[in-house]
Specification:
Elements (H helix, E strand, L loop, with lengths): L1 H19 L18 H21 L11 H9 L3 H13 L3 H6 L10 H12 L12 H15 L14 E3 L2 H19 L22 H4 L22 H22 L10 H15 L3 H20 L1 E2 L2 E2 L15 H9 L10 H5 L7 H8 L1 H4 L2 E7 L16 E3 L6 E7 L3 E8 L4 E2 L10 E4 L6 E9 L5 E4 L4 E6 L2 E6 L4 E2 L14 E5 L6 E5 L2 E6 L2 E8 L19 E2 L6 E3 L5 E4 L5 E8 L6 H8 L4 E5 L6 E6 L5 E5 L7 E2 L2 E2 L6 E4 L3 E4 L4 E6 L2 E6 L3
Parallel strand pairs: 8-14
Antiparallel strand pairs: 1-5, 2-3, 4-6, 4-28, 6-7, 7-9, 9-10, 10-11, 10-15, 12-13, 13-22, 15-21, 16-17, 17-18, 18-22, 19-23, 20-21, 23-24, 24-25, 25-26, 26-27, 28-29, 29-30, 30-31
Length: about 700
């Protein structure tokens, strides 16, 4: 009996183990050894298991959390489960006037990121005209859904907005894309529906952001905001077909412009990429215009090629905007990539659209993503959007709109290796920022280890017990070349916000470096902090000079010479040893990294680093310095810590307008041409977005 019990137990455990590892991806395996000839097998297995993985995801749907309440309905419709009950409940929701129902399903939020995507996917996948599961959405439910979708889009779907620059973004980049993709897809639906095709849109012409008003979206009393101040209405009547054609042209221009000049403003954002990427994928899946579908597919290929070259174990490195500290498993692009590469899918908001999508990675993306060792060590440099137009007064009607400068002077730099990725974004000192281009800006180093251990400079904020914790709203000046990055909290920068937005302070904060607690070795020596993580090494040195906390005229004696003494005792540790707090909030910080192939041990790396020349040259006023540093590879850095002078590398000022918009061994494009090459070994895709 005992043996039988043990047999049953072992079989059960084996079954559970198999269930947990049934869907796997080589991209996320630490011990993966690359063999190009096996990739076709991985691609075939991914295709063969796709339907099982979709079914598994929908069978494990949760309706808990913000904007998740519709997910169980989509899952049940896909699975053909309890259709009578689901349609009854959906009809009641779509036709309800109950504020509690509206609150639960986010129907009282005019700019909800979820509902419109839910609505048009329900229509196309389960409605009466669907080619996939027609009739699972009953006629009366479908009619109620369309009336609600019309009500939720009619004011935002202003045809005059489709004629404006694709670089004008309402509220935020993700909100802007949600609204405009929804305008495209809903117009397409309505122009083919008898009850809607002849309806005339309000077309207010008052400007973008109608009802983008937090008092209404999130406030208790739901107070609506005013119309914009523009007067663009031309007196013409526009139907859904007119709107559809206008938005097709808009997105044709949108993809061309991004291909020419770079993407995204919310680059590599931890959560918002789930919104942006899923809605752009919807254009590929649902738009009936073949040219636009093709351009959307090409654009997605570039997005994923860029991700593939800059990730280790699915964790993206490099600079990020609107980032937060979290785990790999919560990161949007990781979750998308997991499913594309054969792993588990997600049926939560935005991710459910991936389960319904036909988009898949091209083989070249697989090869770039998997060949960690073969990619070697390389730099990836790209131009980034986000700088505002430095003009005032702003055009009427843009009270809730960012007006991005198409010649933005932001450069994103990443040094990518098989063991770590170091990256930052270098912004021209005179660049004009929006309220988002500096929000939660992240730069630092990401190691290959499980869950992507990270080390990064960060603003600090005290909690209730007086301990400093990482605070995402700081902003730094940066310069990087290959494996060396210099960082300092910015002393000042220019921000231009939409007229009705608050000007939030992001300056003069306490600063430090987040270290984390999942490294192999940490050693402190001569003011340097040395870290070993796997086969990667990192050296960190905060620079504390003389008079860092002030100099009194006619009272303090000046020290001799033109170089300040460097004080090695420049920081303190937090109680949990997860971060260091700088004694001078404006300290310059040196980050230099390397790998075991270059230095056999951390000790060897330390000895080499400690020989590097580092100096704080004095400026006119005591306590303010110019940092000069020479890295292990001989590169010399000039970084003015006293003001916003452009940094220099080997005596040359940084070029904030490089010739290439994408420049790496695997992704190449000359700025403003719209022609992008994706390259890996003997494979190449040339994408022309100008056609």
């Amino acid at each position: 009996m005992k043996n039988l019990f043990l047999l049953v137990l072992s079989l059960t455990l084996f079954s559970l183990s198999q269930a947990q590892t049934k869907f796997t991806s080589q991209i996320f395996q630490q011990d993966y050894s690359h063999n190009p000839s096996t990739i076709i097998t991985y691609i075939e297995n991914t295709s063969a298991t796709k339907q099982k993985r979709i079914k598994f995801a929908f069978e494990n749907t949760s309706g808990e959390g913000l904007r998740e309440a519709f997910c169980p309905f989509i899952a049940n419709l896909y699975l053909g489960k309890d259709l009578d009950d689901n349609n009854k409940k959906l009809f009641e929701i779509f036709t309800s006037d109950d504020p509690a129902i509206h609150e639960k399903y986010r129907l009282n939020d005019p700019w909800c990121l979820a509902f419109k995507q839910v609505a048009y996917h329900m229509y196309y996948v389960f409605g009466s005209k669907s080619t996939r599961f027609p009739g699972r959405l009953y006629p009366e439910t479908e009619k109620a859904l369309l009336e609600l979708l019309w009500d939720k889009t009619k004011l935002k779907n202003d045809i005059h907005l489709a004629r404006e620059s694709t670089w004008w973004m309402v509220g935020s980049e993700n909100h802007d894309i949600v609204a405009k993709v929804s305008n495209l897809i809903s117009s397409q639906i309505f122009m083919n529906e008898e009850d809607f095709k002849y309806r005339i849109y309000p077309d207010l012409g008052t400007g973008a952001g109608e009802e983008y008003w937090f008092h209404h979206m999130y406030g208790k009393d739901r107070i609506k905001g005013p119309h914009g101040r523009a007067n663009n209405k031309d007196g013409k009547n526009y139907t859904a077909a007119d709107h559809y054609q206008a938005w097709v042209k808009y997105f044709d221009d949108f993809f061309t412009e991004r291909a020419k000049k770079g993407f995204f403003l919310e680059m590599a954002s931890f959560g918002y990429m789930a919104v942006t990427v899923s809605y752009l994928t919807d254009i590929y899946d649902l738009c009936e215009n073949e040219k636009l579908k093709h351009k959307a597919e090409d654009f997605l290929d570039v997005v994923w090629a860029d991700w593939a070259q800059e990730q280790l174990l699915g964790v993206r490195g490099g600079a990020k905007t609107r980032e937060k500290i979290g785990t790999r498993w919560e990161d949007a692009m990781y979750r998308f990539a997991r499913f594309y590469s054969g792993g588990e899918g997600s049926s939560s908001t935005h991710f459910f659209a991936q389960l319904l999508s036909s988009y898949q990675w091209k083989p070249i993306i697989w090869h770039i993503a998997l060949d960690r060792e073969g990619r070697g060590e390389f730099e990836s440099v790209s131009r980034q959007p986000g700088e505002e137009e430095g003009t005032m007064p702003r055009p009427w009607g843009t009270e809730r709109t960012m007006l991005c400068n198409t010649e933005s002077r932001f450069v994103r730099y990443s040094w990518i290796t098989p063991d770590y990725i170091m990256g930052c974004q270098m912004d021209h000192p005179l660049a004009v920022h929006s309220h988002l281009s500096i929000q939660n800006r992240w730069q630092g180093i990401t190691f290959k280890g499980e869950n992507g251990p990270r080390v990064f400079p960060t603003a600090l904020k005290q909690n209730e017990s007086g301990e400093y914790k990482a605070y995402a709203n700081g902003y730094t000046r940066c310069v990087q070349h290959k494996n060396v990055m210099l960082v300092q909290q910015s002393r000042g920068f220019t921000v231009v916000n939409p007229d009705w937005y608050p000007m939030k302070s992001r300056a003069d904060l306490e600063y430090g470096v987040f270290i984390g607690q999942n490294h192999d070795i940490i050693i402190e020596k001569q003011g340097w902090l040395f870290i070993e993580n796997g086969n990667a090494f990192l050296a960190i040195k905060p620079l504390l000079g003389e008079y860092a906390h002030g100099w009194r005229i006619l009272q303090d004696d000046a020290s001799p010479g033109n170089v300040s003494k460097i004080i090695n005792n420049s920081y303190t540790w937090s109680k949990d040893s997860s971060l260091i707090h700088l004694k001078d909030k404006y300290s310059g910080i040196i980050f230099e990294s390397s790998r075991r192939p270059h230095y056999p041990s951390l000790q060897d790396f330390m000895l080499a680093i400690l020989k590097n020349p580092v100096a704080l040259e004095k400026t006119v006023v005591p306590g303010y310095h110019i940092l000069k540093y020479k890295g292990l590879n001989g590169t010399e850095f000039y970084f003015n810590l006293a003001n916003n002078e452009i940094p220099m590398i080997d005596g040359q000022y940084i070029n904030y307008k490089p010739k290439m918009v994408f420049n790496s061994p695997y992704l190449k494009s000359i700025y403003n041409t719209g022609i992008i090459r994706i390259v890996k070994d003997d494979m190449e895709r040339v994408l022309d977005f100008t056609q």
